[in-house]
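Example record used in the benchmark description.
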Amino acid sequence: MGLKIAVFASGRGSNFQSLYNALREDAEKARIVVVISNNSDAGALAVARSLHLPAIHLSQKQYSSHAEFVEAVLQTLESFQVNLIVLAGYMKKIDAAIIGKYRNRIINIHPALLPAFGGQGMYGIHVHEAVIASGARASGATVHIVDEEFDHGKIILQETVPVEPNDTPEILAERVLKAEHKLLPRVVRLFAENKIEIINGEVHIRKPD
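Model output (C-alpha cells):
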C-alpha cells in the first residue's frame, strides 16, 4: 500500500515542500495525502493548494471543546487512511489520544541536536539564539519519534552542522534548515522501506540487504 503521509505544519512549509519534492519520484512507496495546519494563513497550506493536495485548517478555536477538536483531527486522518504523520514546523502539542492511535508513526523534525535545546519554548529562532548563547560549536537537525512530551521521543537520525564564530541566529538557522531538508526525506524513505523498527521503545535502523 505504501506510506500515506499527513504533514502537520504551522509556518511557511519549506520542510513540507522539500519532502514533497523528494518523494515525487517514488510515489508508490510514499506520498503526502493531506496537509494540516492550525494556522489558516500558513504558507504550508498555500503550497499544498498549489500542488493540488488537500490543505486543511484545523484549530482548537474552531471547536467548542478540546475533545471535539481531537476527534476532528482523528477523523481527518482516518478519512485519508494516513499511516505516518510528519510534524514539519508544527507549533502545537499533539494530543495523547492521537499519539496513542499512531504510536511510533508520528515523527518530528527539530532544528537542534536533541536532547540539547529542546522542550517547551524551543522552536524557530529561539533555538538558534540559545545555541549561539551557549557557545556550542555544533548544532544541526534531529528527527525523532513523537511521544507525550515536547521533543522527548526516541531519536531516529541527526545531521550535524558547525556553528561558526560569526554566526547570527538567522545565519545558523539557514544552515540548519539545509540539513533539515536532507534529513527529513531520508527518514521518511527509511519508513517507506520498512527499515525502521521500534523494539522495546528503542529505534533500530535495519541495514540494507
